[in-house]
């Protein structure tokens, strides 16, 4: 039996337009509203417990139809908890603080929807007439940006299928419906296609402190190939994905990136490795399009400090 907050969270995620962040904030705001606590400390504890349950749910997904990133979940929880602590220090009055937090939650939900639009506004001009754009994985932010670019420009897109969940097909469908010439390729053809493309753009599950990203498996390879072929590699991500993490290598982050989706007909002595995400270091990234502006990877840490001040 999943805890109530997890069921609530999964319920919010059923809305196909709802970002993970929005579902997280709605869930945490619900925790505050229901909480009979009489001290801020109790509210903080209740939120911390809820945050741990949401992370656990994202690390071992109950519902296979929903792709959850425990990195995004944790980043949003941490940002909200940081705000709770700040509120705790600013308002002596308990009820006033509680009301403020609920308001803040609602405001966050509203701004998160405009973040995607702002990123599209900032980034769509990087796509120019006649370009061929490669994207890897399924990112609503990237799709939004490409759709906005398509209103004034003609360009084509190459989308990797994005194993193991093949999320690229969904992206390709949305782009094709909008009339953008789109080609789906097997992930292994990234290198083959790279010489033909003009730029690469991907989303991120988490943007880490050094300006690197954690994203769908294969993003790291894609970035290295782009770098080797001197093609710009852009990332589009909302600032609520900025995570207080500093990975040193591919396995150095406290999130579950393993996939149990293993073919059944394998030899008993054989193991199949199928991680779902990887870490791309900052020096492979040209620019990040965020709701805080267009950032170089090295500017990310300053923005992160401001967010968590
Ligand atoms: C990755 O970094 C962590 C933390 O520094 C370290 O414990 C681990 O051995 C490293 N793994 C590899 C494969 O280098
Ligand atoms: C990681 O995810 C896999 C596949 O969903 C699951 O089998 C495993 O128990 C998870 N590990 C942790 C530590 O949550
Ligand atoms: C698995 O490997 C062992 C040697 O480590 C071997 O003796 C055994 O026959 C192998 N199992 C199968 C089913 O091939």
Question: Key features?
Answer:
309 residues; initiation factor; 3-stranded antiparallel β-sheet; Translation initiation factor eIF2B subunit alpha; 10 helices; Four Helix Bundle (Hemerythrin (Met), subunit A); Rossmann fold; binds 2-acetamido-2-deoxy-beta-D-glucopyranose; 7-stranded mixed β-sheet; alpha/beta; 2 domains; globular
Description:
The strands form two sheets. The protein has a seven-stranded mixed β-sheet, with helices on both faces. Strands 5-6-8 form a three-stranded antiparallel β-sheet. With 309 residues, it is an alpha/beta fold. The protein has two domains: 4-113, Four Helix Bundle (Hemerythrin (Met), subunit A); 116-308, Translation initiation factor eif-2b, domain 2 (Rossmann fold, 3-Layer(aba) Sandwich), CATH 3.40.50. The model has no long low-confidence stretch (mean pLDDT 90). It has helices at residues 4-13, 20-34, 40-59, 70-90, 94-123, 140-150, 168-177, 190-194, 219-228, 300-308; strands at residues 132-135, 156-160, 182-185, 199-202, 206-207, 213-216, 233-236, 277-280, 287-290, 293-295. α7 (168-177) links the parallel β2 and β3. Helices cover 46% and strands 12% of the residues. α3 (40-59) packs antiparallel against α4. The site of one 2-acetamido-2-deoxy-beta-D-glucopyranose has 2 residues, from loops. InterPro entries: eIF2B_alpha/beta/delta, elF-2B_alpha_N, IF-2B-related, IF_2B-like_C, NagB/RpiA_transferase-like.
């Amino acid at each position: 039996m999943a805890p109530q907050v997890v069921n609530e969270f999964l319920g919010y995620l059923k809305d196909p337009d709802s970002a993970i962040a929005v579902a997280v904030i709605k869930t945490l705001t619900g925790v505050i509203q229901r909480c009979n606590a009489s001290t801020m400390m109790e509210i903080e504890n209740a939120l911390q417990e809820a945050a741990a349950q949401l992370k656990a749910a994202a690390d071992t997904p109950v519902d296979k139809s929903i792709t959850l990133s425990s990195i995004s979940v944790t980043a949003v929880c941490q940002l909200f908890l940081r705000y709770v602590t700040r509120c705790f220090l600013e308002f002596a009055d308990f009820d006033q603080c509680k009301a403020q937090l609920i308001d803040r939650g609602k405001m966050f939900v509203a701004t998160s929807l405009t973040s995607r639009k702002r990123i599209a506004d900032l980034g769509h001009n990087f796509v120019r007439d006649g370009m061929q754009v490669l994207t890897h994985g399924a990112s609503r932010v990237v799709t939004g940006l490409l759709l906005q670019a398509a209103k004034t420009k003609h360009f084509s897109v190459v989308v990797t299928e994005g194993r193991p969940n093949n999320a690229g097909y969904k992206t390709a469908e949305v782009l094709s419906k909008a009339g953008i010439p789109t080609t789906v390729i097997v992930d292994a053809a990234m290198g083959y296609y790279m010489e033909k493309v003009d730029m690469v753009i991907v989303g991120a599950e988490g943007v880490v402190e050094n300006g690197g990203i954690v994203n769908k498996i294969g993003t790291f390879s894609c970035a290295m190939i782009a770098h080797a072929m001197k093609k710009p590699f852009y990332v589009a991500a909302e600032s609520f994905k900025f995570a207080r993490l500093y990975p040193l290598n591919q396995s150095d982050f406290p999130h579950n990136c393993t996939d149990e989706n293993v073919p059944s007909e394998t030899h008993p002595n054989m193991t199949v490795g199928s991680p779902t995400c990887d870490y791309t270091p900052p020096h492979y990234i040209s620019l990040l399009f965020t709701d805080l502006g267009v950032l170089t990877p090295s500017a990310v840490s300053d923005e992160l400090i401001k967010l968590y001040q």
